[in-house]
Amino acid sequence: MDVLIDNADVFVSGFWLTLQLCVLSATGALLIGTIVAAMRISPVPSLRWAGATYVTLVRNLPLTIVFFLTSFGLPELGSNADFLRVPGLSSVFDRLGIDLPYFRFAVIALSVYTAAFVCEAIRSGVNAVPAGQAEAARSLGLTFRQNLLSIVLPQAWRAAIVPLGSVIIAMIKNSALAGAFGVTGELFSSGQNLTSSGGNPIIPVFIGISIGYLIMTVPLGIFIDRVENRRAVAR
Amino acid sequence: MSPQSSVLYDAPGPRTRRRTTIAAVLIGVALLAGAYYLVYRPLEAKGQFTAVKWGPLVDLADPNLPLVWERIRLGIIATLTAAALAIVCSLLAGTLLAVVRMLLKEQAKRRYAGLPAAAAYALRGLNTALRGITRFCVEVFRGLPVLVTIFFAWRISGISDPLWPLVIGLSIYNSVVIAEIIRSGMEGLPRGQREAADSLGLTPFQAILLVQLPQAFRIMLPALISQLVVILKDTTLGYIITYEDILAVAQQMIQILQNPIQMYVIIGAVFIAINYALSQLAAYVQRRVSRVRAHKPAAAATELAASEPVVLDA
C-alpha cells in the first residue's frame, strides 16, 4: 500500500486532469447533443436527416476510431483545435491552452462521441412526454416554439435526466482512453506509467486508479438511482 | 418522422409546406457547402483524395488490394473472436450472478426456525455478508472504465497471450452490467408469476430458473443485444494490450501505406455496418417483444420494462 501513499500526488493530479477532461467534454457533449436532438425533432427534413445520419454513424463507431480520426483528421484539416484556447477558460483548465493539442483533441473526440448518446437520451425524454400534453398545448393555440419550450421540454427534461446521467457516467469511464492518445498525466495513463516504467507493484496501483474513477462514477450513479426512485413514486 | 414530432406542430398547410421545403433545400445546400469548403477542400489540398492513399483500399486494379483486405479480414476475425468469447463469458457469468443475487435476496427472508439459534444467526450473517460482497462487486466493476479492467487483467494475470486478458477484462465489466439487466427484468415481472410458481410447490431455485429467468431473458432481449454492440465496440481496446485485432493490423498497414485517415474511415465503415445490423436486430426484437406482450393481460406491468429505451450506455 506504500505505493499509494508515496505516489499520492500522481494519483491526485491524474484525478484532477481526468475531472477537467470530463467537465469540458460533458459540457461539449451536452451542447452538441442538444443541438442534434433539436435538429432531429425539427420540421425541416434536411435537418432531421443530418441529425439522424450523425447519430447513426457516431453511435456505431468504436470510440477508439473516433479518437484516431480526430487526432489524424483535425491536423489534416489544418486545425490544431485552437478555437478551444479561450483565454479565461485556459487559466482554469490549464491543459486547454498549451501548444500540444492532444488534450483539446481528446475533448473534441469525447464530446462528438458522447453527443450522439446525449441526443438519443433527450429524444427519448421528448418521446416520453404523453402526446396529449402537446396536443392540449396545440389546441390552446400555442406555436411550435411555445409548445416545445414551455410544455414539452420541461417535462422531457425530467424523463431524460436518468438516461443522461448514465451517458455521462459512461463518458467518464470512456475518458480513460484519452490516456492512450497523448493526454499524459491523466488518471489511467499515470497508472500505466507507475506499473510499467515505475516498476511498482500492480495491485495497489490498480486500487488507486479504481478509487479515482469510483469517486466520480459512484456518487453520480447513486444520484441517478435517487432521481429514478423519486420519479417511480411520483408516477 | 417520429410520431412525437408530428404532435408538436399542426399538419402543415400549403404555405408552411412550401416554406419548409425552401428551408430544407437551403439548409441542405448550406450543409453540403459547409462540408465541401470546410472538409473536402482542405483535405484535397493536403492530397488526401489521391489514388496513392485510397488505391490499396478501394481500387480493384491495385496490386496491393487483395493483400490489404486479407489482413483486414484477419484483423476483423480476431476482433470478432475476442468479442464472441467475451459475449459468451459475460452472458454466462452475468446470468449466474443475477440468479445468485436473486437467491440471496430470497434467503434473506428465511428465519431458519428449525435450527438452533446460533446456527440460524450464523446462516443469516453469511447471507448478509454474501449479499454485501456481490453488491460491492457489482457497484465497483460497473463504475470502472473497461479499459482499466482490461489493462489490469493483463498486467495482474501476467498471461502473455493478450486474448484472454482482453476477454477477462471485457467479461468482468459486461457480466456485471448484464447481471443487472437480467435482474431488473426478473424484478419487473408481474408478481403473480412468482406466486404461481410458489403455489405449484417449486423451490425458489426452480422458480427462478424455470419461471422468472426465461421471461426476464425474453423481455430484456433488446437491451441484451444492444449490450452486445457495446462489447463489440469495446473489443477494439484490445490493441492497447497488444492484441492483434483490427486496429493493430490497421496500425501496421498505416506504417507502410501512410494513409491513416483512409484506413480508419474504411475500418469505421466496417464497424458501422456490423453494429448497425445488430441495432436493427435489437429494434426488431423489441417490436416483436412488445407486440407479443400486448396480447397478454399481464402486459401492463412488463410493458414498462420492455419499452425502456434501448440501453444508452456507451
From TrEMBL, chain A:
The keyword Acetylation does not apply. GO terms for biological process: amino acid transport. Residues 15-224 form the ABC transmembrane type-1 domain. It comes from the Bacteria. PROSITE patterns: ABC_TM1. It is a multi-pass membrane protein. The keyword Amino-acid biosynthesis does not apply. It holds the Pfam family BPD_transp_1. One of its GO terms (cellular component) is ATP-binding cassette (ABC) transporter complex. It is found in: Cell membrane. Keywords: Amino-acid transport, Cell membrane, Membrane, Transmembrane, Transmembrane helix, Transport. The chain crosses the membrane at residues 15-39, 51-74, 102-122, 159-182, 202-224. One of its GO terms (molecular function) is transmembrane transporter activity. NCBIfam families: HEQRo_perm_3TM. Belongs to the binding-protein-dependent transport system permease family. HisMQ subfamily. This is Glutamate ABC transporter permease.
TrEMBL record, chain B:
Signal peptide: none annotated. The keyword Oxidoreductase does not apply. CDD domains: TM_PBP2. InterPro entries: ArtM/GltK/GlnP/TcyL/YhdX-like, MetI-like, MetI-like_sf. The chain crosses the membrane at residues 21-39, 74-100, 140-157, 163-182, 219-241, 261-285. It is found in: Cell membrane; Membrane. Its main location: membrane. It holds the Pfam family BPD_transp_1. GO terms for cellular component: plasma membrane. It is a multi-pass membrane protein. The keyword Cell division does not apply. Keywords: Membrane, Transmembrane, Transmembrane helix, Transport. GO terms for biological process: amino acid transport; transmembrane transport. Residues 76-282 form the ABC transmembrane type-1 domain. Belongs to the binding-protein-dependent transport system permease family. This is Glutamate ABC transporter permease.
